[in-house]
Each structure stands twice: as C-alpha cells, then as structure tokens.
Amino acid sequence: MVDPSHEALARQAATPGVTMLIGGLDTGKTTLALEAVRLALAAGHQPVLVDADVGISTVGPPTCVGIKAFRSADDFDNIYEADALHFVGTIAPSRLVLQQVVATAAMVERARHMGDVIIIDTTAVASGVAGETMKYHKTELCRPDRVIALQRGEEMEPVVGMLRRFLDAEVTTSPTDPGLIPLGPDDRARKRREGFATALAPPLETWKVRETVFAPTLPSGLNLNRLHDVLVGVQDSAGGCLGLGTLRVDEDTLRVVTNVAEGMTGLRLGSMRIDPTTHDATVISLRELMFGI
Predict the structure, then answer these.
(1) Does the pTM of the predicted model rise above 0.70?
(2) 2, 89, 166, 200: most buried by Cβ count inside 10 Å?
(3) Where along the chain do the CATH 3.40.50.300 domains lie?
(4) Fold of the domain spanning 4-175
C-alpha cells in the first residue's frame, strides 16, 4: 500500500485519462502505480498499466515495455504476463533513448484502446541530459493528461520546470514516502535475473535463422561468433514482440534459442548479452559489436 500522504496522488492517477509517473531510483513509482490500479478497479474503471521501466520490470521481462489491462483484482496474480510487449533491448535506457521513447509511446497508444485509466510507470533515468531528453519526449509523444513527479529534495525540478514550460500536461510534485525501503544493487540484479529466467524458461527450442531476418541488418563479413548469447526480441509481422530469445553460433550456423513457438517473422538485436546458465545480463554496444567502433 502507498503511504497515507500519497493516497491523494493515487486517487488522482486512478481517474480517467493518462497519468505518467516520473522520479529517480527508489522513489515509489511502481507502488503508486499499482495502488492507482486498485483504486481505479474499485471505482468501476478499466485501468491499464504501461510498464516502461525496462530495468526492473513488473509487467513482462526486462528490456521491454509491457502493458497489462486489469479487469479484476485477480489480474494482480499474473501481473507479469503482459497483454503486449515492445522490445527496447537494454536495461540501460539512457543508452537507447529513441527506442525507449518510441516503445513507450507505441504502448500508450495501444493502451488507450484497452481501458479508460492509463498509468505509465517510467524508468529511474530522470536527470541529466539523457533523463531530461527522455522524459521530455516521452511526455511529448504520450500526451499524458497529468504527470506526477516523486522526488527527494528538489531533484526533479529541472525536468518539472521543462515540462511546465513547453508542454500542457498538469504536473504535480511530491516528496517520496519517507518509509520507503530502497532496493540494493544485489536485489536489483537478482530481480533482473529472475525476469530473464522467466522470459527464457523451458520449453526452449533452437531454430536456425538466416542473417537477413535481423534488425538492425547484420553487416557483411561480420564474425558471427560475436553474436553468441546476444539478446533478441522475437518479432511478429505486425511489429509486436512475442518474447525474448538469445543467439547461439554452432559451426558458423546462427541459431536463436527461445520459447516462442509460433508467429516469429524477425529478430531485433538487443544491446545485452545474457549468460544462459545464470541469466546475468551484460550491457553491450551493438555499434562496437558489429563495426568495432
């Protein structure tokens, strides 16, 4: 449950329209988002959660923006199972700002057709050039009716000031819950491993894939061994993400290992390498991997 001082914020987010939650690390965005979903359900609305926190995901696996439509409280029991996914390809969104913004905007647009209360839970990248750029363009493209900024001290004031000057969304600021217990680095890494383990759980199948099915396109002459254990988004013909997979190279043959059984038409390369045994994730640069620069 949210802190009593945040009850009004949760009720604000639970009203019809689109609410974007922004804030730094461990500011209580997800807790507030889930409470708003509960309140919206209790009020007879149809809430949809857009989980754009690609590092520590609640809906769907890490590296993806997921959406979940709630029709009853029972949906909290399977909250991980997304109604739709958009692959971003990293747990470090400041490295892929364009992909993060596009994925969030696409999922919000889809969520508008699924419910009347849309709540966007965003990443903790909220300051500096990358954070301000990401939050500005997310707000610009998602067109929320309101933005709720949770902050310690005045850490969000640069972003808040920018949104108020240039965009017409109603912006509310609030201190974080003083009783909030932050997640340590080890806890965050554990949650990511669990998320990848679930997304890549058996039964797994291994499929031979052509070099022409990738986005971005593989450069001519690429040493395929450099792609071993690289994360991919398994895509369908409508541009949606069906799930995750990892690449394997066997005797110069490129294969994808995934539990997606049907509908695969292409693969989007992620900027991550996943250990198949431990599910530890390592951030990589696709530019360096493919072009050595």
Answers:
(1) yes
(2) 89
(3) 4-175
(4) Rossmann fold (3.40.50)
